């Protein structure tokens, strides 16, 4: 059984994610949180397989909460895929730096949301296809070696 905490400041979104995920025999939503701090508390208490986290939640946002659950300094991390309405590169990069295991948009199809949860629970990760190309481009820019100087022409 894949145990999930759903964190989103909108009750209707939490209810929708719960309904989609719990329609599967192998997924159980063990808790819901309306902000990042509560998501961290619930995750540490319930020890789910992952926390499906929104980015923008007052007062503690999802990126801060992700760092507290899955950041580079966390020894016993809990995987955190991010689900957000906003397709913003800054959010994607910040979430991944904070330790996010994946990044999907909330307009995701139900079957794809289930597949994303299963992928992260199986120690994988998932990035929405529309975001993947931009990530690859940015990564390539940041890791591109300096050009090799050509020898002088005789």
TrEMBL record:
Keywords, sorted A to Z: DNA-binding, Phosphoprotein, Transcription, Transcription regulation
Q: Does the keyword Transcription regulation apply?
A: yes
Give the protein's recorded name: Response regulator transcription factor
In terms of PROSITE patterns, this protein maps to: RESPONSE_REGULATORY
> What InterPro entries has UniProt attached to this entry?
CheY-like_superfamily, NreC/VraR/RcsB-like_REC, Sig_transdc_resp-reg_receiver, WalR-like
Residues with 4-aspartylphosphate modification: 54
Q: Which Pfam families does this UniProt record tie to the protein?
A: Response_reg (PF00072)
Which SUPFAM superfamilies does the annotation name? CheY-like
Which SMART domains has this protein been placed in?
Answer: REC
- Response regulatory domain ranges (all copies): 3-121
Keyword Transmembrane set for record:
no
């Amino acid at each position: 059984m894949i145990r999930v905490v759903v964190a989103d400041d909108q009750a209707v979104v939490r209810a929708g994610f719960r309904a989609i995920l719990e329609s599967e025999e192998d997924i159980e939503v063990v808790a819901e949180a309306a902000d990042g701090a509560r998501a961290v508390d619930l995750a540490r208490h319930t020890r789910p397989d992952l926390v499906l986290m929104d980015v923008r939640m007052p007062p503690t946002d999802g990126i801060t909460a992700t760092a507290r659950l899955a950041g580079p300094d966390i020894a016993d991390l809990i995987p955190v895929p991010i689900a957000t309405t906003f397709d913003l590169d800054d959010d994607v990069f910040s979430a991944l730096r904070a330790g996010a295991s994946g990044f999907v948009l909330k307009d995701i199809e139900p079957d794809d949301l289930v597949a994303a949860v299963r992928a992260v629970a199986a120690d994988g990760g998932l990035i929405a296809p529309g975001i993947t190309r931009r990530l690859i481009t940015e990564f390539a820019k940041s890791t591109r070696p300096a050009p090799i100087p050509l020898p002088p022409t005789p």
